[in-house]
Specification:
The complex is a heterodimer of chains A (335) and B (274). Chain A is mostly helical and 335 residues long. Chain A is built from 14 helices and two strands; from the N terminus they run ααααααββαααααααα. The two termini of chain A are 36 Å apart. In chain B, 36% of the residues lie in helices and 22% in strands. In chain B, a hairpin with a 2-residue loop joins strand 4 and strand 5. The chains are: A mainly alpha (335), B alpha/beta (274).
């Protein structure tokens, strides 16, 4: 609730935007571009989860399911030639919004760990359904025959195309959510996180806003799922289950939820660390890369929780504040 | 946490509606029990217009329960609550706020992740209607409304004398200012009736004096104020009408002098002489 303009002139934001745009032009590495594509996709998920947990205080774990539905609905519709890929993405988003509404209305009456349990059940149910409805989803072997995504005459084929598409969506979501956080609705959300009774006492319809934010983040996850699905041209139930949830939680914890840039930073760090581990440790422990992965991230989370309880971004903010204070004191003592 | 549940209007109580239309706020035979404890048994109260009414009583007399039931935080077991001629019994708390009843809390319940100004701005929630899309896309309407809300919030802060702390973190406020911010926040609802839950508890003498001035100012702005308080000198000095609750029952209702002399009240506070 600070600035007036629609697009705040925000220098770090501009630098970041430019970096994202010119990165593929400078590095010209397919590998880096494809990892950054995944950063954007998972970023959309983690931003949504960060918004739910950090701002609204809703401990909802259903994100992998919205991601999966966002992948399967347009995937199935386009593989069967019912709806072409691009409109399918929006049909998928609408369906996810409806499902999130139907699920959220009763489930969001729960609080804290009860909400976590209920939403965790949603993941398990969705995964079983996706694996068992073999006729529709292709079962555990996966959904195949998904056509290429095209816009007008332009077909999204290369990693570079998907890189720009995913970052456009990701930054769009980021912009939308950060506006939201700083708005009347964001403040209402933070208010019921801080004190639900006080929030109601000043007329905030807590149930309504919980449901709205739940649906919004589900739709963001659905867009991410759709792009993911048309990138791989393939979908399996296993990509939308518990491991994805763990990865998302890891990103949020490591990045910090105090601000939206936390989850995005966390996503970047976790995905690149995974790549580095696979690249370097793979040579040392060739048969146990996944186990090493788990141990490494386990230790990292513990370290982050102990030394940076507000995540990497919270920690960096603290350091900057400290530096500023020291600088002021230094200047004070010299003059 | 207090559950807010669904809005259930009680039906078949039309007999108690007689003469309700004229008063600002009326509570009829309110009952509320928690398990075996009857927190409120048959409390009735009628407020004609703006002014200060204090509710006092020993600990556990049902004073805070009275506020919680009449503002929709709890459902009453029995009885009705009318506000400006409308039956608001069982309405959820946020609807009650929309209608123009606001309250403060014993433990302030400020929004600790926000600044002082933001707290006051959230208070003005009912006065704005920016939706999720307008807010997310930062449309002109959202920005204009935000500026207006900021103005109103600053006005409310000025009212309680906190405008100089607007940019500060809520957690840096001392207790007296926290209480004041609670009042500023609840003024954002633009209430006709405001209920203050122990506004003077823990305050120093000069802060209590300031609080008294503020309450007088609210009444001058045509607000009805219900004060739930333990601090007798404060209550007796500020209010023309005092209600005494004891074990959920109304045992006295009248001017401070009448109440002070009431044998039932003396008994409730000091115990009975053998």
């Amino acid at each position: 609730m600070k600035e007036d303009g629609r697009f705040k002139t925000n220098i770090p934001w501009l630098i970041f935007l430019t970096a994202i745009i010119v990165l593929p032009i400078i590095v010209r590495s397919n590998y880096i571009v494809s990892v950054m594509f995944f950063v954007a996709i998972y970023g959309m998920l983690s931003i949504g989860m960060g918004l739910l947990m950090g701002q609204a205080g809703l401990f909802s774990l259903a994100h992998p399911t919205w991601f999966g539905l966002g992948a399967y609905i347009p995937g199935i519709l386009s593989a069967r030639g019912i709806i072409p890929p691009l409109p399918g993405i929006f049909v998928g988003a609408i369906c996810v919004a409806l499902i999130a509404y139907i699920v959220g209305a009763p489930v969001l009456r729960l609080r804290g760990f009860y909400l976590a349990c209920a939403t965790f059940a949603i993941i398990l149910i969705a995964q079983v359904v996706a694996a068992q409805l073999t006729n529709l989803t292709g079962g555990p072997e996966g959904l195949v025959g998904i056509p290429a995504l095209s816009l007008g005459g332009f077909v999204f084929k290369t990693d570079l195309h998907f890189y720009y598409l995913s970052w456009a969506f990701c930054l769009g979501c980021y912009w939308f959510c950060s506006n939201l956080i700083n708005s009347r609705i964001g403040c209402a959300m933070k208010s019921f996180h801080d004190s639900e009774v006080a929030s109601q006492s000043i007329g905030v319809n807590v149930a309504k806003y919980k449901l709205q934010i739940f649906i919004l983040t589900a739709v963001m996850a659905s867009f991410a799922g759709s792009i993911f699905c048309f990138y791989l041209r393939f979908a399996v139930p296993d990509s939308f289950g518990f491991p994805l949830l763990v990865e998302l939680l890891m990103m949020i914890i490591i990045g910090g939820v105090g601000h939206l840039r936390g989850p995005l930073t966390g996503t970047f760090v976790v995905l690149w660390l995974t790549e580095l581990i696979h690249g370097y440790l793979g040579k040392i422990f060739p048969v146990m890369t996944n186990e090493v992965d788990a141990i490494f991230f386990g230790i990292l989370i513990i370290i982050v929780l102990i030394f940076m309880p507000r995540g990497l971004t919270g920690w960096i903010d603290q350091l900057i504040n400290l530096g500023r204070k020291l600088y002021d004191r230094f200047r004070g003592s010299t003059t | 946490m207090i559950a807010s549940g669904d809005p259930r209007h009680k039906s078949g109580q039309s007999s108690s509606k007689v003469g309700v239309g004229s008063s600002l706020f009326e509570v009829i035979q309110l009952e509320k029990s928690f398990g075996g404890i009857r927190a409120l048994c048959g409390v009735s109260l009628r407020l004609e217009k703006e002014g200060i009414v204090s509710i006092i009583g020993p600990n556990g007399a049902g004073k805070t329960t009275f506020i919680n039931v009449t503002t929709g935080m709890y459902f009453p077991d029995e009885g009705d609550v009318y506000f400006q001629g409308q039956n608001i019994t069982g309405l959820p708390a946020h609807m009650v706020a929309h209608l123009g009843i606001s309250r403060t809390f014993q433990l302030e319940e400020l929004f600790s992740s926000m600044t002082v100004l933001e707290n006051a701005m959230v208070g003005c929630h009912t006065g704005s209607r920016t939706g999720m899309f307008a807010a997310g896309f930062r449309l002109r309407s959202a920005r204009e409304e935000e500026n207006r809300t900021r103005g109103e919030a600053l006005e409310n802060l000025r009212m309680v004398g906190l405008e100089h702390r607007a940019a500060d973190d809520v957690n840096s406020l001392p207790l007296g200012e926290r209480k004041m911010l609670g009042i500023a926040r609840s003024l954002g609802v633009k209430p006709n009736l405001i209920m203050l839950d122990e506004p003077a508890s823990g305050l120093a003498a000069h802060e209590i004096a300031k609080l008294g001035d503020l309450v007088q100012k609210l009444v001058e702005n045509r607000l009805a104020v219900i004060i739930v308080e333990h601090n007798m000198p404060f209550v007796m000095s500020i209010s023309k009408r005092v209600i005494v609750l004891d074990y959920g029952r109304k045992i006295a209702d009248g001017s401070p002098d009448d109440v002070r002399a009431d044998p039932g009240v003396i008994k409730a506070y000091l115990g009975e002489e053998d």
